[in-house]
Design brief:
The protein is built from 9 helices and 8 strands. By secondary structure, the protein is of the alpha/beta class. Helix 6 links the parallel strand 6 and strand 7.
C-alpha cells in the first residue's frame, strides 16, 4: 500500500476555476496546504487532458502534493501523474494497478456499505466516501449519506482495508470540517471551498488549519 496524505484533497477542472488557469490554481491550492490535487475534466479532448495534467504537474513539482487523475488511466500514464481516482463504475482497481504499476496511488469512491465491504483485498491506497452532503459541484443521483452514513461506511472500510486512509467528499466547507473529521474522515475533498474563492491560497490555508486542528482534537 502506497502512502498518501489526503488531508486537504483539492479537485479541479475547467468548470471550477472561474476562468483562471488550471495550473496556477493548483499551485495556489498547494501553496495554501492542499496535499492532493485531483484533475477531473469531463469536457476536454485527450490531448488537452494530457497537456493540462502535465502543466499541473509542473506547477506543483517539489511541493510534496500528489497529482491524481480522475478516471483516465491513459491520461495518468501519458502525463506521468502520481495515480488515479476511480469511481464504482470505472475500470476495476486491479486492472488499474496492473496498468499503472505498484508505485501508483489508486483511490476509490465509496457510496454505500457494500462498497466498503468489497474493499478487502483490493489494491487501492485510499478511499473517499460521498457524497456526504448535498452539492452543486457534481451531478449525483444518490442521496447524501450524512454524518451517520459517513461514520458507518468509514468503520467498515477501515476493517476491510486496514491502514488505508478514508476521506469524505461533497458539500464540505469550513463549517462542516470539525463534524466530518469527528465522524472519522482522515481528510476532506473540496472544490468550491477552495477554487470558488478569489484568494485560492488563503482559502486552502484556512481549510488546512481547520482540518489539522480537527484531526488533533480527534487524536488522529
Amino acid at each position: 500500500m502506497n502512502q498518501v496524505d489526503i488531508r486537504l484533497y483539492a479537485i479541479l477542472g475547467p468548470g471550477d476555476t472561474r476562468g483562471r488557469d488550471l495550473a496556477q490554481c493548483a499551485a495556489a491550492a498547494v501553496a495554501g496546504g492542499a496535499t492532493v490535487i485531483q484533475y477531473r475534466d469531463k469536457q476536454s479532448e485527450g490531448r488537452d487532458l494530457v497537456a493540462n495534467a502535465r502543466a499541473i504537474k509542473r506547477a506543483i513539482a517539489g511541493s510534496g502534493a500528489s497529482l491524481l487523475i480522475n478516471d483516465r488511466i491513459d491520461v495518468a500514464l501519458a502525463a506521468e501523474a502520481d495515480g488515479v481516482h476511480l469511481g464504482q463504475n470505472d475500470i476495476a482497481p486491479e486492472d488499474a494497478r496492473r496498468l499503472l504499476g505498484p508505485d501508483a496511488i489508486i483511490g476509490l469512491t465509496l457510496k454505500m456499505t457494500d462498497h466498503a465491504r468489497a474493499l478487502e483485498g483490493q489494491p487501492i491506497d485510499y478511499s473517499c466516501i460521498g457524497g456526504v452532503f448535498a452539492t452543486t459541484s457534481k451531478d449525483n443521483p444518490d442521496p447524501p449519506v450524512g454524518l451517520d452514513g459517513l461514520a458507518r461506511i468509514e468503520a467498515i472500510a477501515r476493517t476491510a482495508l486496514p491502514g488505508a486512509p478514508v476521506g469524505a467528499i461533497a458539500g464540505i466547507g469550513l463549517r462542516e470540517i470539525p463534524a466530518v473529521i469527528g465522524a472519522g474522515a482522515d481528510g476532506v475533498a473540496v472544490i468550491s471551498a477552495i477554487f470558488g474563492h478569489d484568494d485560492i491560497e488563503k482559502a486552502a490555508r484556512i481549510l488546512r488549519d481547520a482540518i489539522d486542528r480537527a484531526l488533533a482534537a480527534r487524536g488522529a
